[in-house]
Design goal:
By secondary structure, this protein is an all-beta fold. It contains no helices and 8 strands. β5 and β6 form a beta hairpin.
Length: 86
């Protein structure tokens, strides 16, 4: 598995983007909980044109969207499938 993290090179982006992250490799199939933290995250699935998020009791409710998700500040935890982080 490869993981690259970098800060934006353009000073014009610095007020809006804290960092870029790139993940490549095989992940075990699991659900990763994302806790509320007051930040927004733009996630892009480069492997397939679908992103699945889970919420509700025991994360039993599935929401499917195109391969891009904007996860903004929220009041409760949500979850994503780790398979989609490749």
């Amino acid at each position: 598995m490869s993981h690259i993290a970098a800060r934006p090179r353009s000073l014009a982006l610095v007020p809006f983007i804290a960092s870029f992250h790139y993940h490549k490799g095989e992940f075990a199939s699991a659900v990763e909980r994302i806790l509320p933290n007051g930040q927004a995250h733009l996630m892009v699935n480069l492997d397939e044109d679908e992103f699945r998020t889970y919420n509700g009791p025991d994360f039993g409710t599935v929401h499917r969207t195109c391969g891009v998700v904007l996860a903004g500040p929220h009041g409760r935890a949500t979850a994503i499938d780790t398979k989609e982080q490749r």
